[in-house]
């Protein structure tokens, strides 16, 4: 009966000892290992060798969280599939998201010996496993040329995304941590951009002044002297061309005037010929069988000259007086044709 009060005390001491011994053992248990390798800007070049599958995600993305367990299962079987599995947090690594030009989340990429392809299937383990075992990636067009993440263009894109990520983190630091209004943060970045632009412009001017070699004064004077005769020669050529145009225009005007004068003369000749025909038609008819030898002489001369048209006929007069009249008319016509000649 005397030892009864010690029973509860011994039981409490024993329970405390057991709890103390069990606590450190449970705390010492290691957490479950993740088979997915986190990729950063410093180790992303590992995907240039061997076969890899990469997942781009964000902690706040619900679709990314739904595929986490499937992606972990796929990574556990990576040794069987002979493939490495990695993931990229676009919030912590904006440069890598720019290098791969990630615009949607989650985004999956397949890499085989430095050749990258975009996987657009669901992030389910079975589909990922079949994609590797059946080598469906061979039917997908690779990202080559400037689109390749290892190209110089995408390296520049990675730098821009890294700068934008740093600016975003700095903006959050101003607005969240320090409690500065957002408009004050925007004004700060605008002023910083202007100052940086002015500074870079000054640097470019200094660099150009350092590498620019001015020409000696003699060479510059010689260049001016050689340039002046060339300018004068060009001016003379232009003046000569203008004078030639003016001369050609004057000749064309003269030719047109001469043509007009000739047309007027031709019209006058036609009018005179019509008058002569009217005079011939008004003369008395010639008798049949009575042709004076004196009247036939001038007629033959006119026909030999070829100045009369076939329709025109010189009247033959029976007497010598009439022959003299015919000779006078013949002379008048000769004079008229002589005037027309020049």
TrEMBL record:
It is a single-pass type I membrane protein. SUPFAM superfamilies: Thioredoxin-like. The chain crosses the membrane at residues 186-212. Residues 223-342 are annotated as: Disordered. Residues 1-22 form the signal peptide. Residues 239-281 have a biased composition (Acidic residues). This is Thioredoxin-related transmembrane protein 4. The gene is TMX4. Residues 223-237 have a biased composition (Basic and acidic residues). It comes from the Eukaryota. It comes from Vulpes vulpes (Red fox). Gene3D superfamilies: Glutaredoxin. It holds the Pfam family Thioredoxin. Coiled coil: none annotated. Residues 49-132 form the Thioredoxin domain. It is found in: Endoplasmic reticulum membrane. Its main location: endoplasmic reticulum. Keywords: Disulfide bond, Electron transport, Endoplasmic reticulum, Membrane, Phosphoprotein, Redox-active center, Signal, Transmembrane, Transmembrane helix, Transport.
């Amino acid at each position: 009966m005397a030892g009864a009060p010690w029973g509860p005390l011994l039981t409490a001491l024993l329970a405390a000892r057991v709890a103390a011994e069990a606590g450190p053992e449970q705390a010492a248990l290691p957490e479950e290992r993740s088979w997915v390798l986190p990729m950063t800007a410093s180790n992303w070049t590992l995907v240039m060798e061997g076969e890899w599958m990469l997942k781009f995600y964000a902690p706040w993305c619900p679709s990314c969280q739904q595929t986490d367990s499937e992606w972990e299962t796929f990574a556990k079987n990576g040794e069987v599939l002979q493939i490495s599995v990695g993931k990229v947090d676009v919030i912590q690594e904006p440069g890598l998201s720019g290098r791969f030009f990630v615009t949607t989340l989650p985004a999956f990429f397949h890499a085989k010996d430095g050749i990258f392809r975009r996987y657009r299937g669901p992030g389910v383990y079975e589909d990922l496993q079949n994609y590797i075992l059946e080598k469906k990636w061979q039917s997908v067009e690779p990202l080559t040329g400037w689109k390749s993440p290892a190209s110089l263009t995408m390296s520049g894109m990675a730098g821009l995304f890294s700068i934008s990520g740093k600016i975003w983190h700095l903006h959050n630091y101003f607005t969240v941590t320090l409690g500065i209004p957002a408009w004050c943060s925007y004004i700060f970045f605008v002023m910083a951009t202007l100052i940086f632009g002015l500074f870079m412009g000054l640097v470019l001017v200094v660099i150009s002044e350092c590498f620019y070699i001015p020409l000696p004064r003699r060479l510059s004077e010689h260049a001016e002297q050689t340039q002046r005769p060339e300018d004068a020669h060009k001016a003379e050529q232009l003046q000569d061309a203008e004078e030639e145009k003016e001369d050609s225009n004057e000749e064309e005007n003269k030719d047109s005037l001469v043509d007009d004068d000739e047309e007027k003369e031709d019209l006058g000749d036609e009018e005179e010929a019509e008058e002569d025909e009217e005079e011939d038609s008004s003369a008395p008819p010639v008798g049949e069988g009575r042709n004076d030898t004196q009247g036939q002489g001038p007629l033959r001369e006119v026909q030999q000259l070829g100045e009369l048209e076939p329709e025109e006929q010189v009247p033959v007069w029976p007497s010598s007086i009439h022959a003299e009249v015919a000779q006078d008319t013949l002379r008048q016509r000769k004079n008229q044709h002589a005037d027309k000649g020049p």
